[in-house]
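For the sake of clarity, the format in which proteins appear in this thesis is described at this point. The record quoted next illustrates the convention:

___
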Amino acid sequence: MGTLNSSFLFRSQLRRVISIAIVGMLICFCIVLYGFKHADRTVEKINRDRLFHLREACERTNNGGKNTIETSFYIHVKNESLLYCLVFKSGTTSWFYNINRWAGISEETILDDKTDNFNLARQKYPWENPRVLLTSMKNTYSFIVVRNPFERLISAYEERLLGQLHPYFKNLSHQIYRRYHDDGNHFGIPSFEDFARFVVEQSRNKKPSDLHWRPINDLCTPCLARYDSILKMETFAQDIEYLTNRTQLHGKIKPVQMNRSRRDRVDRLIEKYFSQLTKQQFDDLYDVYRIDFELFQYSAERFSKYVKQKE
């Protein structure tokens, strides 16, 4: 009898332990699920606030001073029901990689340094005229990826003018140097100050700047577009997760690193380069990208603190 009671007690305790464990697991699952949903709602609110701010800023700036939508840099990926405006130096490498991969192009071709992935994408996803593009925006998930204008400028300077990986940028780098240095050196490397002066002068003279540092407002005319998402490089991981949750891209976006790694931390680069500028040079440069700063809620404060206080 004692053995039977012990066995019954053991089974009873075992059932209790199992029940407690199951309840505990369900509670943990609910907490995790709540966390995911809460995080997703938070990102959704952030995205909604970004879109609302864009509309308000567009009203304040008279549509960024634009009257006609620029269609050249929108890519309509019909097979994935996506419409993407590419901002060079703002994650385009990863998006080109995935967009061209979805088109059936081999990784070997996409990752080849000689491949122009923008033109490659255009072969599969042709340019749309303004009327068709605006209609496409109503029927597809439309998004843009942006970045702090001055971080984007630093990235362009480092990769394109210092890296000189392409003959065009190697030649442009030497041209900019000769423009501001009369020392007989035909192959000098321009300083960031030289580059900043060049960007300002091109803007003032109404000359189209290179795509890698052209203002977002000129590339995508965002005030004349309709977006479902504004992704930022500064919060890219959570933003891309939000995008995949609202599209059919789960498991389809593959990360890739094609650009060479940055030489220094971004805060070190900001100090290194913006300490070369006078306050007037900084103000002139800010004016080139002022609309971008306003439209996408960016601040130039952490850059301005390094500017030379005396001329």
Summary: The first strand starts at residue 74 and ends at 77. Confidence is low (pLDDT under 50) at residues 29-38. Strands lie at 74-77, 82-85, 141-146, 229-232.
